[in-house]
Automatic annotation (TrEMBL):
This protein's GO CC annotations: membrane
Database matches in SMART domains: AAA
Organism listed in the record: Limibacillus halophilus
Protein name: Phosphonate transport system ATP-binding protein
PANTHER family: AMINO ACID IMPORT ATP-BINDING PROTEIN, PHOSPHONATES IMPORT ATP-BINDING PROTEIN PHNC
Domain ABC transporter: 2-246
Domain of life: Bacteria
GO molecular function: ABC-type phosphonate transporter activity; ATP binding; ATP hydrolysis activity
Signal peptide from the UniProt entry: none
Keywords: ATP-binding, Cell membrane, Membrane, Nucleotide-binding, Translocase, Transport
């Protein structure tokens, strides 16, 4: 379980990115984190694993207080937190397999990581993960030869290679087309269910968040203004989070996409991808 208690972040410029944010994410729950640009979504994700240092508050992963750890212990704790990035963060000159295995770098001695020598058990796990994300036939291909959706699948496999207890996912669909975006969100949800893995997904697409997460947290100006199930995200709440918008038109456009999505699920099942 993840517990965030009274988390705040104020930058040296005086800008307040987060203000007294508190919530819990139990095992297996996938939370969509939504809000306008500048609401503090990415800052919150990065405060959880201390890529950004919070100004105040606590973050607990199980019984471990992440916010109080010295640097050496923080490195070990980060092995328990998988991170999936918007821009994939792959080493493009390396193969797909080598990128997935980089998820084990926090577990191996420096000399072995430098020479990229891994145990057979790590290799076996990486092959299984590539099969799970639909890339078993791409293991030896260089990362820079992949499509955006394939790169994001490599990023998911790499995060899972860590054996994480929590997934932090930062805008996983921002660079993807609508069809691929739905595939990636569905894959993340399925994997979290299979592994009883909690996840926070920072996502700008409200409809995707509603369709593929169990719970939504809405941020505005660094504060939580909504925390509840997707079906409670009505026009009034959306306006509180984002300001005035034609939400009816947005839903109509999304409804059209849903018909395409149903056909896509059928295709994937026939192809053995889900």
């Amino acid at each position: 379980m993840l517990k965030v208690a009274n988390l705040s972040k104020t930058y040296k410029t005086g800008d307040k990115a987060l203000s007294d944010v508190s919530f819990e994410v139990p095992s297996g729950e996938v939370v969509g984190l939504i809000g306008p640009s500048g609401a503090g979504k990415s800052t919150l994700i990065r405060c959880v694993n201390r890529l950004v240092e919070p100004t105040a508050g606590k973050v607990f992963l199980g019984d471990l207080d992440i916010t109080s750890l010295p640097r050496k212990e923080l490195r070990r704790a980060r092995r328990r937190i998988g991170m999936i990035f918007q821009e994939y963060a792959l080493v493009e000159r390396l193969t797909v397999m080598e990128n997935v295995l980089s998820g084990r770098l926090g577990y191996v001695p420096f000399w072995r990581s430098f020479t990229r020598r891994f145990n057979q058990s790590d290799l076996d796990k990486a092959f299984k993960l590539l099969d799970r994300v639909g890339l078993s036939d791409q293991a030896e291909k260089r990362a820079d030869a992949l499509s955006g959706g394939q790169r994001q699948r490599v990023g998911i496999a790499r995060a899972l290679e860590q054996d994480p207890e929590l997934l932090l996912v930062d805008e996983p669909t921002a660079s993807l087309d609508p069809k691929t975006s739905r595939q990636i969100m569905r894959l993340i949800g399925e994997i979290c269910a299979e592994r009883d893995l909690p996840a926070i997904i920072n996502i700008h697409d409200v409809i995707l968040a509603q369709n593929f997460t169990r719970r939504i947290i809405g941020l505005r100006a660094g504060q939580v203004v909504f925390d509840g199930p997707p079906d409670a995200l009505d026009d009034k709440v959306l306006t509180e989070i984002y300001g005035e918008e034609d939400w009816t038109a947005m839903r109509k456009a999304a409804h059209s996409d849903d018909h395409d999505d149903a056909a896509l699920v059928k295709e994937e099942r026939l192809a053995g991808l889900t």
